[in-house]
Predict the structure.
Amino acid sequence: MQTDIFDSYFFRRLPAISARLVGALCCSSSGQNCRYQARAQLCAFLSPFSGVLSEIESLCQLKCIMADSKQSYDQFAAHYDQIFESWEASILRQATVLGGILQHECGDKQPIRALDCACGIGTQSLGLAMKGFDVEGCDISSGAVQRAPSEALKRGLNVPFSVANMLQLSAVGRSSFDAVICIDNSLPHLESDEQLLQAAQQAHAKLRAGGSFIGSIRDYDRLVVERPTAEGPRFYSDSDKRRVVFQLWDWLDERRYRFHLYITRSTQSEWRTFHFTSTYRAVLRSELGDILTQAEFTNVRWLLPSDSAFYQPIFIAHRTC
Ligand SMILES: C[S@@+](CC[C@H](N)C(=O)[O-])C[C@H]1O[C@@H](n2cnc3c(N)ncnc32)[C@H](O)[C@@H]1O
C-alpha cells in the first residue's frame, strides 16, 4: 500500500530529485514504514520547490555527464577508426584539406609546426605528419593518446603525443606553434562559454605571433533548429564483414544533447555492438566567433563545407601579436 502511494502519487507529482533527496535524507531511518512516512512528509514539504529541484537535478546530471566524457573516449579509442568507412582514406582526405588551409595560412615556412590539441587517436595528426608537417598531438583521453603513437609507428611517423586538457595547454612543452588545430567537433565537448574562452586563450598562448587557430565543429546553426534525434545508419563492409554505424541524440535542453553511438559489427559467428556515449553543447558559429575575438584572435572567419570540401564548418582565427 505504502509502495503504491509512493510510486504512483509522489513520482507523478514531484520531480525525481525530490524523491532522491528525500531518500538520502531518510536512509538512516529504521524500517520501511518509517522511511516511506518520512519520505511522504518531506516530499510534501519540498513540493513547492520542485521547479528549482528539477533545475538542480539537471545541472547535477550534466556535471556527471561531462565528467564521464573522458572515460568514454578512453574506452572508445580501440574502436574509434570503425566510425569511418575507411579510417585510412579519411586520414588522407582530411590531411589534404587541412594541409592546404595550413599552407595558405602559414605561408612558405617549412616545416609548418602544428599542435593538434584534441588529437584523439590521431586522425589529423597522422595525415598531416604524412604530408610533412611537424605535428604534435595531445588529448584529454589517455586511452586515445596510448593508441596514437602505435598508429604513428605503423606508418613510420615520428609524432609526439601526450595527455593534456585543452583548458590547460601549458602541460604541452613546446610553444610558438605556427598553428593550433582542434578538429571534428572537439570544442563542443566543453561545458560553457567560459570554458570555450579558456580553450581559445590557451590556444592563443601556444601560437607564435602571426599563427592560426583552426578548428571544426558540426553545423550547429542548422542542428539547433532541426534538433535531430538520430544520425545514420551508415552501412559499411570490409571484405566479408559488415558494419552498421548510427547515433541517437537525446536533447537535454535547448543546446545540450547526449549522443549514443553504436557500432554493430558482424563477426565469424554473431553480431557484436559497441556503444559509446558522451555529451555535446551546440555552439553557434557567431557565438564561437565572438569568443575567439574575446580571446584576442583577429580576422576570424568560417569556411563552410561548400567552400572547403571538408565535412564540417571550419574556423580560422589569427594571433596578431
Ligand atoms: C570527436 S573526437 C575527435 C578526435 C580527433 N580530432 C579525430 O578527429 O579523430 C573529440 C576529441 O576531443 C577530446 N576532448 C574532449 N574534451 C577535451 C579537452 N577538454 N581537452 C582535450 N581534448 C578533449 C576527446 O578526448 C576526443 O578525442
Summary: The chain has two domains: 11-66+228-281, 87-217+284-319.
